[in-house]
């Protein structure tokens, strides 16, 4: 059995501990009879440990970390928007929606200058517009989340924050 030295310089044997921080065995106990050992093992086996609960309060949020996380999530959302717009445009183009809308407009007699919806809503135009909107969204979402984090810190200092109870179930 190994030993360790505590803060006051005493040498003590190192003892294995259970989840409840009770010693498993110190090696100094008298040997137990086999029936008592079996009863103790049976008792330990059927004992259900209680779930630990801890009450915490979220009293402060670091605004810089909120800004970094929000920025990265916004960039990911912007990329998703651009890819989704490109896929949607390709699906609509393959389905012939642009051509059909052009035919409907020309059949109404409003086609005075050779209107073609596929030229107006070309892939490059759609992707450019969605990219600009995604960049504006990244900037706005990052700024708003950072401002909300700062506001949360102010309100939290007044009311004590959000109280959370965590359980070890």
UniProtKB/TrEMBL annotation:
Residues 1-50 are annotated as: Disordered. InterPro entries: DUF3566_TM. The chain crosses the membrane at residues 69-92, 126-152. Residues 18-28 have a biased composition (Polar residues). Residues 52-168 form the DUF3566 domain. It holds the Pfam family DUF3566. Signal peptide: none annotated. Keywords: Membrane, Transmembrane, Transmembrane helix. This is DUF3566 domain-containing protein. The lineage of its organism: Bacteria, Bacillati, Actinomycetota, Actinomycetes, Bifidobacteriales.
């Amino acid at each position: 059995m190994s030993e360790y030295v505590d803060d006051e310089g005493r040498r003590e044997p190192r003892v294995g501990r259970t989840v409840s921080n009770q010693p498993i065995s110190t090696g100094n106990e008298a040997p137990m009879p086999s029936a008592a050992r079996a009863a103790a093992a049976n008792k330990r086996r059927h004992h259900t440990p209680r779930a630990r609960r801890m009450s915490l309060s979220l009293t402060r949020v670091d605004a810089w970390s909120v800004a970094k996380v929000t920025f990265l999530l916004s960039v990911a959302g912007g990329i998703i928007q651009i890819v989704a717009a490109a896929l949607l445009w390709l699906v609509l183009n393959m389905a012939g929606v642009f051509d059909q809308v052009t035919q409907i407009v020309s059949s109404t007699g409003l086609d005075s200058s050779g209107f073609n919806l596929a030229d107006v809503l070309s892939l490059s135009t759609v992707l450019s517009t969605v990219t600009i909107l995604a960049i504006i969204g990244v900037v706005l979402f990052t700024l708003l989340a950072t401002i909300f984090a700062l506001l949360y810190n102010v309100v939290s200092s007044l009311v004590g924050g959000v109280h959370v109870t965590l359980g070890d179930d």
